[in-house]
């Protein structure tokens, strides 16, 4: 198996040296953590997740922004902390996309073309490029960027040998980790792929067992929000050997119906199919799912040994800060890149630094998970409010009338009405 060791090379604090050692127990898939020792006045955005050192927590989410060598190279050049490639499987010949495959939801009256884009639906499938082509590009990227984190997203049919072959082939390229797509809401569910696995905990446990018995690099399980309780598959994935979970993938949706043509969007030859919903409008839903997973991880697992990657509607540094405050180690962006370009990462970094300066946070770990403590049950909210009301009533703020003066408490009663 491969373990990771980080060392300084030519002054580069993110250099990666890979050592191959015999595989023993699961924790050895995790590399050695490094913590910055320099005392900088600027906040430190670097993170170390499952032994993977990143200059910042911003990760290209699996999808069009990681679809080939050219765009992934651009992401590294712009400064993204890591790149997750578009999902690959053994037989790309079965993947046939259509065009158009996107539809947008705008704010404003009647979906005006001038309104802000708040929702984005896609009916896009996983990579339709030959696996061998993608593997060559992974290898080339790791050759050119040995100090940057490249993560392969994989999906396969319900076949143990198929999963094992796919893992073996992607690992041979030198990728740093694997994200398993248990969450794509559309396309090929009849082949037990994507959300068809993530929604079935028994099936998920079996497939995770195959994957984690074979993988020698950290494995993240990408969760579907199209489920009643997202903590259930997240718990199964971690218990079955995954080092981390990512949440959320897109939400099953129908973007809308044209009131002129009566046809659904996106419209392909007059027809459509439900697709995955992303962008700003899903952000609150994603925050709730991430919060639930983080609370479960904190109570049932040693969350220092596992990781959580937050995904959903990130376009600003503030959006990212919210995920981190709820326990996320990294934050993925996909639709945001499609709308604003790869240079978005610079804005995200600056805005996240501004947030950290405002609160005097020096590192990501200083505030990761801080807001989890403020979530409770509705019953507890009622109790807290009733107690607060009782306490406010118990505090007398001055006398209401002359008849309330007493001889015994005269001095204190006088003090209660003094303003300085």
TrEMBL record:
InterPro entries: Aldolase_TIM (IPR013785), Dihydroorotate_DH_cat (IPR005720)
EC numbers: 1.3.1.2
Pathway the protein takes part in: Amino-acid biosynthesis; beta-alanine biosynthesis
GO molecular function, one term: uracil binding
UniProt cross-references to SUPFAM superfamilies, sorted A to Z: FMN-linked oxidoreductases
Superkingdom, taxonomy of origin: Eukaryota
Domain Dihydroorotate dehydrogenase catalytic: 45-356
Keywords: Oxidoreductase
Gene Ontology annotations of biological process type: beta-alanine biosynthetic process; thymine catabolic process; uracil catabolic process
GO cellular component: cytoplasm
NCBIfam families: PRK08318.1
Protein name: dihydropyrimidine dehydrogenase (NADP(+))
Organism encoding this protein: Gossypium davidsonii (Davidson's cotton)
